[in-house]
Specification:
The complex is a heterodimer.
Chain A (H helix, E strand, L loop, with lengths): L1 E5 L3 H9 L3 E7 L5 E5 L25 E8 L6 E4 L7 E6 L1 H14 L7 H8 L1 E7 L9 H4 L2 H5 L4 E5 L3 E6 L2 H6 L10 H15 L7 H7 L5 H9 L5 H4 L7 E7 L5 E7 L20 H20 L9 H5 L6 H11 L8
Parallel strand pairs in A: 2-6, 6-7, 7-8
Antiparallel strand pairs in A: 1-9, 2-3, 4-5, 4-11, 8-9, 10-11
Helix pairs in contact in A: 8-11, 9-11
Chain B lengths: L2 H16 L4 E7 L6 E6 L19 H8 L4 E5 L1 H12 L8 E6 L22 E5 L2 E5 L4 E4 L1 H4 L17 E3 L17 H13 L6 H5 L24 H15 L8 H5 L6 H16 L26
Parallel strand pairs in B: 1-3, 3-4, 4-8
Antiparallel strand pairs in B: 1-2, 5-6, 6-7
The chains are: A alpha/beta, B alpha/beta.
């Protein structure tokens, strides 16, 4: 179902939606950075191709989360669940890479024998509205790892800027309900044509690569591991800010009155003690092993285990790496090293 | 190619051909003209990979300690980078004879993360050069001068050591420094506490600030001492505060103000504002600035009988 939302009516739609959902969207902070934050009439979303610093995975996998509390009671110890009802939430302005990242996270936390109940509760109450980027940033490579338009259509609604308004495509029943707001009207043939122009431009890849080919090329022994490890400083930025990274640590802490809280926090395989074992051994003792782990996990192990490329080409690691160890260049080297002409299939 | 690049390459070639050093640590062009990436050159013919431009933001002293353990190294160093090397020598982490400093007189380097807010589309950038104290960028419409205050690494605006205090060769000449004053901190202490509470709430505890700092070389950081629990792993305001203030105290008298911590912080925390404040305190109490004299003793690790500080 396609509808057009005139730009001037965006806040009317948000007002209408706010009666049904808690609204989150990209806002610009004082220092010029972009973050997903609660929206209001005074705080409208900024819709463009700039990405948020923290990826939207914060909404479904917070960086710090209580799992449960232990209360010794008076001889009657109890475990208290973290609690918290998750109000229906609408996350607006997710870029195609952001939307796709939820698909990767879903495979990790919802598929298989064990469902993560904390993730499931937040994910279950989330409705997504994608914003299809009108252009890519220099660091973006979404169209090299997949089809960003197809990714957008996995959101409940996908918005495309067609000039005077946003062409909204509903892809689920929740999405269709959202387009029931009176602010929407029928799109014209021109609106649809302009949307197709944006979509085709987004699909164009500078360097197409087949995730399967990269997965096959990545090897246990690669000159790339030493080359990257030499300049990598082992900071957590690439993985902390990665929309599909999921690693966490669990800690128990006393919180007074004999009570203990178990919580989980964001962790990264790039920290030196990430794989330190209880007996002192660390199977990833140097940066070389940790660099290998990150790239292999993202481009090989997840492909094999979950049937999906772990990377969504958002470009955060490329832009934020303190030493500009550009991942795209590293993958290029690995594929060439293994005898393929280029990173394309 | 600018003359800085020529001179750095020539020096690297000479050092590697003679076998005087086993590796030259320098900069290679990065993904855009606003970025540079560290490069480790071991063969004279690879000296061509080295270059110099205002994009050379990283502090390469970070790599010197580990690389020098394997043999003499050469490193391209700006004023702040050379001060880091001095600190390492003072703290016995490095011997003077194990490092050959290719000093570069610098008028400031670009923080690529600030370009977007300054209205520069990094994706369209064709070239970025410094000449006569001006920063000139071409985004396809011809060269245009950039406003230094808007695109330089913020720490560069406060720099007072454009020429390295330690060098074996030095390239270029820098203009006389005119450091700004940091007006970010509120005067009122309660307002100041609120300011930092707001900043530390943004911290995601990625530890990039610590990893990028040449002075943070402890094999086990206090944050990793979980059984002792100096600071919890919890990512929340109070714990973030604990991490940052403890680190600031560990850096007092040692931070050289290179500003890398601030540049790499994904959350935009003005870490240098805190570090500069600590440096002011140390200078006021002991008349000491970090990383200026390799023969000076580390100020907070030295006891003097004649030290009559304000406590009496």
């Amino acid at each position: 179902m396609d509808r057009l939302l005139p730009k001037a009516a965006l806040k009317d739609w948000l007002e209408w939606a706010s009666a049904r959902y808690h609204l989150l969207g990209p806002v610009e902070s004082e220092d010029g950075s972009r973050a997903f934050a609660p929206l209001s009439q005074d705080r409208l979303p900024v819709l463009d191709n700039r990405r948020s610093c923290l990826p939207p995975k914060e909404a479904v996998l917070p960086s710090c989360e209580t799992l449960f509390t232990f209360d010794p009671g008076d001889g009657e110890p109890r475990l208290l669940p973290a609690g918290g009802e998750f109000a229906p939430t609408l996350m607006l302005g997710m870029k195609p890479c952001d939307v796709r990242s939820l698909e990767v996270l879903d495979r990790v936390f919802l598929d298989g024998r064990f469902q993560d109940p904390y993730y499931a509760a937040r994910r279950g109450s989330l409705v997504t509205v994608a914003y299809v980027c009108e252009s890519k940033r220099w660091s973006c490579f979404c169209s090299s790892v997949g089809d960003p338009v197809e990714w957008s259509l996995a959101a409940d609604v996908a918005l495309t800027d067609v000039g005077d308004g946003y062409l909204a495509s509903a892809n689920t029943s929740a999405g269709e309900e959202l387009l029931g707001c009176p602010a929407f009207r029928e799109p014209s043939g021109d609106d649809l044509a302009r949307r197709d122009v944006v979509w085709n431009a987004l699909r164009e890849a500078a360097e197409p690569f087949d995730p399967e080919a990269v997965a096959a090329a990545v090897d246990w022994e690669e000159p790339a591991w030493d080359a990257v490890a030499e300049k990598c400083i082992g900071c957590g930025v690439c993985s902390f800010l990665c929309p599909t990274c999921t690693c966490f640590d669990i800690q128990d802490e006393t919180i007074g009155g004999g009570r203990v809280e178990r919580f989980r926090v964001r962790d990264t395989c790039q920290f030196c003690d990430f794989t330190k074992m209880g007996h002192g051994h660390n199977p990833r003792p140097s940066r070389r092993e940790r660099v290998r782990q990150r790239i292999s996990h993202k481009f090989k192990y997840i492909v094999r285990q979950c049937g999906i490329c772990g990377c969504v080409g958002c470009g955060r690691c490329v832009e934020l790496c303190p030493v500009n160890a550009d991942l795209r260049g590293v993958l290029s080297e690995i594929v060439k090293e293994n005898g393929c002409e280029s990173v394309s299939a | 190619m600018n003359s800085h690049t020529e001179q750095i390459r020539a020096e690297a070639r000479r050092l590697l051909e003679s076998g005087e050093v086993s590796v030259v640590i320098g900069y290679a062009p990065g993904s855009t003209p606003a970025r540079a990436t560290p490069v480790f050159v071991r063969k004279p013919e690879d000296a061509e990979r080295l270059f110099w431009s205002p994009a050379c933001a990283a502090n390469l002293a970070l790599y010197v300690r580990e690389q020098a353990a394997r043999g003499k190294v050469a490193v391209v160093a700006k004023g702040c980078d050379a001060r880091s090397i001095v600190t390492l020598i003072q703290e016995k982490q490095l011997r003077r004879e194990d490092v050959h400093v290719i000093g570069v007189a610098c008028s400031g380097v670009v923080d690529a993360g600030r370009l977007a807010s300054a209205g520069v589309d990094e994706g369209k950038l064709k070239s970025l050069e410094a000449g006569g104290g001006a920063l000139v960028a071409d985004c396809g419409d011809g060269p245009a001068e950039l406003q230094r205050e808007a695109v330089l690494k913020r720490a560069c605006l406060f720099c007072d050591t454009p020429v390295p205090p330690l060098w074996d060769v030095v390239v270029g000449e820098a203009a006389a420094p005119s450091p700004a004053r940091d007006g970010v901190l509120p005067e009122d202490l309660d307002a100041r506490r609120e300011f930092w509470a707001e900043q530390f709430a943004k911290c995601v505890r990625c530890y990039a600030c610590r990893q990028v700092c040449p002075a943070c070389y402890c094999s086990e950081c206090f944050t990793d001492r979980l059984p002792v629990g100096w600071v919890s792993k919890r990512i929340a305001g109070p714990e973030n505060w604990m991490y940052h203030t403890t680190r600031a105290f560990h850096m007092a008298g040692r931070c050289v103000g290179c500003g890398e911590c601030e540049r790499v912080c994904p959350a935009g925390i003005p870490i240098q504002t805190l570090m500069r404040r600590m440096a002011e305190e140390v200078d006021g109490l002991f008349g000491y600035r970090a990383g200026m004299d390799p023969d000076a003793e580390p100020v907070l690790a030295t006891y003097r009988d004649d030290d009559d500080g304000p406590a009496g």
